[in-house]
Design a protein that fits this description.
Elements (H helix, E strand, L loop, with lengths): L1 E4 L6 H11 L10 E16 L4 E20 L2 H10 L14 E10 L6 E8 L11 H13 L4 H8 L22
Antiparallel strand pairs: 1-3, 2-3, 2-4, 4-5
Helix pairs in contact: 3-4
Length: 180
């Protein structure tokens, strides 16, 4: 299945590091295709204990766009990402975690046909900007750069207000959201 990444999951090394830290097999995030999700905007309305600040989300906003990357992943790979972003379902199948899966149509920058993909969106985001840590934003920017996203998008990422902050907090530093 196609997965559209836009935040810290753009940085495949950071995803692999998280997996090692929590004892999971990293997903095979190879052959990334830079892409754009139209009519959404990037924001940071979710607080993460793990990162010590705000984390990325997408919100429907006509006329805006979010640059990211498409990855062709297996359901097993997506299950690992579900753990990373705290996607959980209750017994009735309702989304109760921090993020939910949504279906989106994205446009690959290689001029290919639009692709239907899965993306993560916050289930109960705050309504205001929670500054991410500088370390978190650096990882997002490094991932965007490594995947060939435009310098204009990278400059946009650099424009977000951040808070000082180092590496993520270790295991056992908070509730379930400490895993994000």
């Amino acid at each position: 299945m196609w997965y559209f990444a836009y935040g810290s999951n753009l940085n495949t090394r950071a995803v692999a590091e998280w997996c090692r830290h929590f004892g999971h097999r990293p997903p095979a995030m190879k052959r990334a295709r830079p892409a754009v999700l139209d009519n959404y905007r990037l924001c940071f309305p979710i607080y993460s204990e793990y990162w010590g600040g705000g984390i990325a989300d997408i919100v429907y906003d006509p006329g805006k766009y979010v640059a990211g990357a498409l990855f062709d992943l297996t359901e097993a790979d997506m299950s690992v990402l579900d753990l990373k972003v705290d996607r959980r379902l209750d017994d009735a199948g309702r989304e109760i975690g921090t993020y939910k899966r949504i279906e989106v149509t994205v446009n690959p920058l290689d001029r290919g046909q639009p692709v239907v993909a899965v993306a993560y969106q916050g289930t109960n985001p705050e309504r205001y900007h929670i500054p991410p840590t500088q370390h978190y934003m650096d990882l997002v920017i490094q991932g965007a750069y490594a995947l060939g996203l435009s310098m204009m998008w990278i400059a946009y990422l650099q424009s977000f207000a951040v808070r000082p902050g180092g590496k993520p907090r270790g295991r056992g530093t908070g509730d379930v959201s400490s895993r994000l």
